Amino acid sequence: SSGINAEWPLRPGYSEILAECQTMDRDSLSNRAVTNPVTANNIIALIELSARYGRDYRIDRETIVETMEHHYKNLEGDWLALRCSGGFLGKTVDSLAPSVSAVIVSGRSLSLGVHGEPEILVEGPLHPRLLHGILHNQVGKQSLLHSTLQQECLICVADLLVDHPELFKGILIIRVGSLIHLLQTVLTPEEAPLETLSPVETLSPLETLSPVETLSPHRLGKKIRYLLTYSNSISRNGPWQEHRLINGTLGRVPDNFSSRVWLILQHQNIRFTCGHCYLVSGDILGTKVSEPFFAMKIERFLNCFEAHSRNFVIELFHVLASTLVRNPEVNLVEDFHVLDFIKKSEVEIDESLEVVSKKFISCLIKFEFVKLANIENCIVS
Predict the structure, then answer these.
(1) Nearest to 249 by CA among 228, 233, 278, 229
(2) How far apart are CA 123 and CA 111, in angstroms?
(3) How far apart are the first and last CA of the chain?
């Protein structure tokens, strides 16, 4: 609306500006790189020049690195420009190591890296030099922008963990890249029933529509809190497609989920498989259901699935546990191919938990995934 544009004009994102720069010739890029005032256009033009001609390429007697340093020191208010130039120059926030420690102390692990790319799992406190290396030598190779944006998100997450730990209920590994992916791709609907949110916590149209990399750190943190609160609110009552995609991407599991999986593995000798990933009855030997090792074993298995399939697996285990509680005489097939089962059940991502549960029960009987089929009443409630 005009009111939004007058107060906070929506700015183009990194991909949009980079795509434009990639169509420009060397002289046009060089001119753009040094025009005033300095904005994200200048910074991304320098990044494109560096990609083509190297970091020592000179513009008006200065190398690209020297020009970038000069721009970085004079940037104000253009958050995309600051993040891109900071990533290019390898800048790291001083308070980052304590934020990592806050995540670890909460009993969780941390994953860095761009969503869909190989993740870097952090399971203990890190020396600032090592953390700098991960962000700029590993994450930075996946995405220069993420090398700084993930720092800011990590600080926001650590603060929220201290002030609002309930937002992370059921999340064992905080995947910063996946969180950013959701912030970039999921436009949480304004009409969503969020009675738990105060007016301060709801999002303005600017915060909903703007590319996440253009938001200030304050608005970025606000959007992260909104997303986590929204994902909690839809965990049991839908909308189901958003629940499966958002909570599947966040890696959230329901209460007592480890206990349900333990019950299944304890009931009989069974092997759940997905490609090269597996979860077997032997995993519970010498351990307890409450031990972090067992929860992490489950998490690694769930991480083999795409977001929506991951949630179908969680719902399947819920059905199987309920089945075995109500019908202890039932035995499952010893080699349970999870994706094959989900495909045969013909579940849809937007179907309710009740409908999906009924389809799972029907599939267990129809395709003989159970050895005794008197389980028609074992529907998840």
Answers:
(1) 228
(2) 9
(3) 43
